[in-house]
Amino acid sequence: MSDQMSIEMGSLTVRFNRMFLSGIPDC
């Protein structure tokens, strides 16, 4: 169970990071 939770949390983090990074303009 913990493994599945870890994978789900990792996927959420990756999605959040991509959204956050895409929202920042590249200098």
Question: How are the SSEs placed, and which strands pair?
Answer:
Elements: H1 2-23
Please describe the structure with a list of short key phrases separated by commas or semicolons.
single chain, 0% strand, 27 residues, 1 helix, 81% helix, mainly alpha
Question: What can you see in these coordinates?
Answer:
This protein is an all-alpha fold and 27 residues long. Helices cover 81% and strands 0% of the residues. The chain has 1 helix and no strands. The radius of gyration is 12 Å and the shape is rod-shaped. The model has no long low-confidence stretch (mean pLDDT 84).
**What share of the residues does DSSP label as strand, in percent?**
under 5%
- Note the run of SSEs as H and E: H
> How many distinct helices?
1
Q: What profile does the largest beta sheet have? A: none
